């Protein structure tokens, strides 16, 4: 049985807490360029069809009713629900165009609606979107797919949950962040316990197979005690998963964050105390550490996949479907098809213009070369399973690991000395103390990082 615990070493965390990627892809999205467009994307779809295999779909619904000051997502804040109408028309057209390019015999094993706030759409609109997807892609009809949606409990009620279940969703993620009323006011997200737990209870009653709660630590006015109170209240409802993210205050990149009072942000020392408390509480409650801010019950699919060596990581986070090509649909969405990543236009008008011309709205991407694919495999194994077999990599990529990565192995020596990992002739084993710092370990294998490091959030 794989050890899925963590060890909180305050000294190590302080010394290694620097900026770095979250590795939802390698190369990261910063390497996407505008020399890659629709023509290149179509070529990769052809290669993907020749290889076959299942698909994963991501649909981006960018609208939010109100703005949360901490948000770093690609969203459009509006109270005018009519704004969703032309966007939905264009999204359905894109689904039709993309669906025509992929072989219909390829099952969609995974589907996710993200945002923004997908439940900004009304029931009729959500039904139309799912019906259009089913008409152009091979969705499962027996509830065996992993079909998930992000919901805002302030935009959701019992009827909404029942409608989502009827549409085929069987996993749900609830945004929360913090229950403390002072923190909620400071970040402009007022959300009651009654709203949140009513949605969680409704999801269970309707038969959703997995429930996830999103929290953020490091928000203004948070303390160890206040966040512990929030966590205790949620643990009483025992969701299947937790996603507990470090707030990255980057107001130069995300203008809305300028609304946050920097003087009210917890100190780095206080954030570390909160993180330590979170790890202890969730471990005591029986959750296991999946990695990168994610905890799950031992019998959850993510935890099982990690123990079986089948966990994967993509633009939506940890996933059990490493065999799926990911098709991004909607404004700003990112996909991974074959050996390439691609992204749709970020602005609504550019996205709409492409769709009106019957063009795929891809505006940038990147082809992975042999070195990219090799390093991606190394980073994926480390970030998902906290270990790496040299023999497995050598067999798959026809290299001698010690020769190819001689410089990287030398750079790992200080981490070995500090107890983050062990390097043996057989491979790399990350320690329980090193798991919270897995991004640092992966960064050693990132050839693009040096010139880009200032553009990432801190690892802790």
UniProtKB/TrEMBL annotation:
Q: Which residues bind S-adenosyl-L-methionine 2?
A: 70-72, 116-117, 177, 189, 214, 248
This protein's cofactor list reads: [4Fe-4S] cluster
- Which residues are listed for [4Fe-4S] cluster binding in this entry? 64, 68, 71
Which GO molecular-function terms appear in the entry?
4 iron, 4 sulfur cluster binding; coproporphyrinogen dehydrogenase activity; coproporphyrinogen oxidase activity; metal ion binding
So, what pathway does this thing act in? Answer: Porphyrin-containing compound metabolism; protoporphyrin-IX biosynthesis; protoporphyrinogen-IX from coproporphyrinogen-III (AdoMet route): step 1/1
- Where does the secretion signal sit in this chain? none
| Reaction catalyzed | coproporphyrinogen III + 2 S-adenosyl-L-methionine = protoporphyrinogen IX + 2 5'-deoxyadenosine + 2 L-methionine + 2 CO2
List, in alphabetical order, the GO biological process terms annotated in this UniProt record.
protoporphyrinogen IX biosynthetic process
The Radical SAM core domain, residue ranges: 49-285
Subunit organization: Monomer.
What function does this protein fulfil? Involved in the heme biosynthesis. Catalyzes the anaerobic oxidative decarboxylation of propionate groups of rings A and B of coproporphyrinogen III to yield the vinyl groups in protoporphyrinogen IX.
By what name is this protein known?
Answer: Coproporphyrinogen-III oxidase
Which species is listed as the source? Methylomonas koyamae
